[in-house]
Design a protein that fits this description.
Mean pLDDT: 90
Distance between the termini: 78 Å
Strand order of the largest sheet: 1-2-5-6-7-8-9-15
CATH architecture of the largest domain: Alpha-Beta Barrel
Number of strands: 16
Order of helices and strands: HHEHEEHEEHHEHEHHEHEEEHEEEHEHE
Structural class: alpha/beta
Helix content: 40-55%
Number of domains: 2
Largest sheet: 8 strands, parallel, barrel
Number of helices: 13
CATH class of the largest domain: Alpha Beta
Shape: globular
CATH superfamily of the largest domain: Glycosidases
């Protein structure tokens, strides 16, 4: 009898263990299925909804990147038009871009640009030129179903500050009247006055660059602003980060202190890297210069010269250098890690989104970070 009871108990124990094991297996399978459908890291990261604006240029790499990643783009901003002193806007957007954007629900907001101070002054101080520019903006927008326009007027003199603001306000009233959006790419600045250091250089930048932007008034007339935090260092400066984190943070703090609403700020993120090297040409003679290069070009240079990247924790950016002909060449690298650090600040401050220059130059891994950390806004 004892043996019989022991056998019954053993069978019940075994059956109980089977049920427990099957239950655990079912739980594991269910968890796996849920994880596949709803990744935990993505779900947590995607609490932030970002309006992702990506700039596009006329290169094949830029177009191919747009095609490949169109589902992670809210607004595509082709750098496709130029404006002159008479207010004449010329250019066109690749028809393939228009077709794909329409199919995927991506808004098209081209920018028009000018960097010529003489043309800018003529445009802003001529009633006829301003009216012509606005007429053409409305015409092209209706013709090609644009979402609106972005202004990219750089190298502008301080003397045209008020006329530029009034022209922008005039354009804003006209575009909004017809249901179109307006934004401006605003050059980098972390204060509304020249820097105290390097006074001659600071005065030059203020009088011919950021001093011409009345940011609060421009933001007030805008649906959003794209604030270009990149180009911290240029061919006019010694080598340095494209947009080091302390610099980037100061740019954002400046906007917030000005009282610009977070839902109007599309913070500019660079995805290109900077390469400094010595050169010579007939106009400038021997001099140092800088090229904006792609992440793939960075990898090629590192491999070609056997250079190694070094991470700068205080800047959230990498650099590399090597000697060639007795002279150092420098790289400052924007990769997925630096991109993620900047995106985190946009997320932390609940900004409208990001404006990334430029499709086709990025570290491919940025798309994984963007997918994990933010939900792409679809604009109706």
């Amino acid at each position: 009898m004892i043996v019989l009871l022991q056998g019954i108990m053993d069978r019940r124990y075994i059956e109980s263990k089977k049920v427990t094991i099957l239950s655990r297996i079912s739980t594991i399978w269910l968890a796996a299925l849920l994880a596949a459908a709803f990744p935990i890291s993505s779900a947590l990261g995607q609490e932030y909804s970002s309006e992702n604006l990506f700039y596009l240029v006329g290169s094949q790499n830029s177009y191919e990147s747009f095609v490949q990643h169109v589902d992670q783009i809210s607004i595509v901003c082709p750098a496709a038009y130029h404006i002159d002193g008479d207010g004449v806007i010329t250019g066109f957007v690749d028809p393939r871009v228009l077709k794909l954007a329409n199919e995927k629900g991506v808004k098209v907001m081209p920018l028009f640009a000018t960097f010529d101070q003489t043309e800018e002054h003529e445009l802003l101080n001529s009633v006829a030129a301003r009216d012509e520019a606005i007429r053409l903006m409305l015409f092209y927008a209706r013709e090609f179903n644009y979402y609106g326009w972005q202004f990219d007027v750089e190298n502008m003199n301080l003397r045209d500050r008020d006329t530029y603001t009034s022209f922008y306000q005039q354009a804003s009233d006209s575009l909004h009247k017809y249901g179109l959006k307006i934004s401006m790419a605003i050059v980098k600045s972390d204060q509304p006055a020249p820097e105290s250091g390097n006074p001659a250089f600071a005065r030059f930048l203020y009088e011919n660059d950021f001093g011409a932007f009345d940011v609060p008034k421009i933001a007030d007339a805008s649906d959003f602003i794209s604030f270009m935090t990149y180009d911290q260092h240029t061919s006019l400066t010694p080598p340095g980060p494209v947009a080091g984190m302390p610099w980037f943070t100061r740019m954002l703090d400046y906007l917030i202190k000005l009282g610009i609403p977070a839902d109007k700020i599309s913070i500019g993120l660079p995805d290109y890297s900077d390469y400094w090297f010595p050169t010579w040409d007939e106009k400038h003679g021997a001099h140092s210069t800088r090229d904006e290069i792609s992440y793939s070009a960075v990898q090629n240079l590192l491999d070609e010269f056997g250079a190694t990247e070094t991470w700068m924790p205080d800047q959230d950016e990498s650099y590399a250098y090597w000697e060639e002909g007795g002279v150092f060449n420098w790289l400052f690298v924007e990769d997925a890690k630096s991109f993620g650090a900047k995106l985190e600040l946009a997320k932390k401050n609940h900004l409208l989104g990001i404006s990334v220059w430029v499709l086709g130059m990025e570290d491919p891994a940025i798309w994984n970070i963007l997918a994990r950390e933010a939900r792409t806004t679809r604009i109706k």
